[in-house]
Design a protein that fits this description.
Elements lengths: L7 H9 L5 H6 L9 H17 L1 H5 L8 H6 L3 H8 L6 E4 L6 H6 L5 E5 L3 H13 L5 E4 L3 H7 L4 E6 L4 E2 L2 E2 L10 H11 E8 L5 H7 L3 E9 L2 E10 L7 E7 L3 E7 L24
Parallel strand pairs: 1-2, 1-4, 2-3, 4-7, 8-10
Antiparallel strand pairs: 5-6, 7-9, 8-9, 10-11
Length: 284
Amino acid sequence: MNENILNDEVQKYIHEHINADVNKIALAKPLFKNISSAELAGQIAAKKKSIHKLPTWFKTENIYYPALLSIEQCSSEPTAQYKANLARGKSLVDLTSGFGVDSFFFAKKSDHVYSCEINEELASISTHNAKVLGAENIEVLATDGIEFLKNTAQNFGTIYIDPARRNQSNKVFKLKDCTPDVTEHLDLFLSKAERIIIKTAPLLDISAGLTELKNVNEIHIVSVKNECKELLWVIDKGFKGDTKIVCATLNDTLKSFEFYLSDLKLETTIAKTEPKGYLYEPDV
């Protein structure tokens, strides 16, 4: 983390050149001492990406931005707010916090959030931004979240994990292909918290996920502006009942409907009629 980027004149330049051609800036002669042109361009590109996705960060002064890829991969504010309402208990540990967006919104619902990030650069950035955003109950730990759980004697109300879905530059979505493999560590999670929330890609087949996981109380299918963004698996220690499926659309207002897994086993009647003039494609 290059703290020179936080200088007033640099921050002013970033703000005033939010719509500038970042490629030209990256290739130009450095404008500020101890700041490369690539670093400056990266801050502008990441901040611009946050205009709609992370408006709280965009509107807050002295935010330090990570590499653009981290902004692209992190949760948007609407989805982060949604999942924060699923947390239980007074303490929460985010095992793969990244840029810290989910941790920030969890901190609004929990007394204390342990935000684990194995990348030291990202951990430093998240620590700085948490202070700037006034989230004093977030404790950022530059460590592997799984190792943190193994070595702590503390228990938590909720464990949240968003496993990485890239493997040697290829996108993956099966639970066993993600890092870390949540199926391998599920017993550890259940020994440390009453509730586990796992974020997965929308491509993950629900029946396959139910086969690999256990104690799944709820599955939330979350869509933003007609695009399915994520599946949230809510696992509660000791739960053995019928799994609830919640479909939520986060547009101008929250709309949702829910049903139970057993409902899918009911016999359905397919109308034997000719196709009409349009195809109805559901949101989630």
